[in-house]
Amino acid sequence: MSDISLEIVTLEGLKFQENVWQVELPTPNGVVGILPHHIPLISIISPGVITIWRREGMPEDQIEHIATEGGFVEIDGKRVRLLADSA
Q1: CB 54 within 8 Å of CB 20
Q2: Phi and psi dihedrals of 60, rounded to 5?
Q3: Helix (H, G, I), strand (E, B), or coil: what is residue 68?
């Protein structure tokens, strides 16, 4: 199983850091799904919900949701680094 490192940082400091299977992020162009080996990307994050799957095939009731007011994301295929106004 391949994972991707997810880091969520706000003005208050590190809020989340863990290896996960998949992340969905709200952007101005719609929701972006990120899996390991995603193409490099830098984007604005829109206010909305970040959805996190810790492992493949997770039951619906175990999927984690984090609200955000926006920010920026950097994706390099091995890591998703989210700089958020709040989360």
Answers
A1: yes
A2: -55, -35
A3: strand
Show Cβ contacts of residue 18 under 8 Å, excluding neighbours closer than 6 positions: 5, 6, 54
Q: In 43-60, which positions are buried (b, 16+ CB within 10 angstroms) versus exposed (e)?
A: eebbeeebbbbeeeeeee
User: Following DSSP, what letter does each residue of 6-63 receive, concatenated?
Assistant: EEEEETTEEEEEEEESEEEEEETTEEEEE-TTPPPEEEEEPSEEEEEESSTT--GGG-
d(CA 36, CA 45): 19
Distance between CA atoms of 13 and 61, rounded to whole angstroms?
28
Per-residue pLDDT of 18-60, as tens digits, reads 999 999 999 999 999 999 999 999 999 999 999 999 998 888 8
